[in-house]
């Protein structure tokens, strides 16, 4: 959650910095890659480009998806200066092996909470997912270096990491004030059952909702969901959907006697969403029928 003082500073700074960036540099552009149903996880990577240089936000899960991101970067003709990992789950960073081999001069950075999360969980995640990945398993896992401060600079324009001061610093997102865009992170989803297994308390859901509210307060013109299926409108509608899903999940969890009832209730409320496996596991965790390490 972004405190009032911090948010006010961000909004005022965004206005002033946006004017200077417009005068001094070309407009940043976003090139979005999401493998959809072709991959285990429909996770998003975003290439943020200036006139000559680029920053990649998130590195994909499997080798084959990371290779497609490599081709996208090469096709852009930009020099990749930085790969920023916005969250500590493996679908955000297992592809680093492939990307760093292709772009060895690019820095690999993440926030301190994300680096801590990766270090604490990487061995277990690789042991669990490795056998399921086949040829897509990384030859080695790479832990990012720690980002100094809370922002990256691309051709004079800022990419700011927000949420580090709040109650869920490992669930931050990237705000690009010059183009009023939100990218990265795990807090926004669309057209998909939202993964609830990693947030197992009412307070964690309240904190998540507060983060979503802080995104709306920024009045973004573009929101790229961290996970989605199908087409994303890349608007604040994805934020509103995620908030509605969290509230519905809490309401139905309180009423359901077991995971089967919870699953049925959520399917009734959201009949068109993909990735029912996420709902099934999240429901079992919510009703105490299985353990899931946060």
Provide a descriptive summary of the structure in words.
Residues 1-23 form the signal peptide. This is MBL fold metallo-hydrolase. It is a single chain. By secondary structure, the chain is an alpha/beta fold. It has 2 domains: 1-183, 4-Layer Sandwich (Metallo-beta-lactamase, Chain A), CATH 3.60.15; 187-294, no CATH class. Helices cover 43% and strands 17% of the residues. It has helices at 4-24, 63-76, 90-93, 96-102, 112-133, 202-217, 237-255, 259-269, 276-286, and strands at residues 29-33, 45-49, 53-57, 79-85, 107-110, 145-146, 151-154, 157-162, 173-176, 181-183, 189-190, 222-223, 227-228. The chain is globular and about 55 Å long.
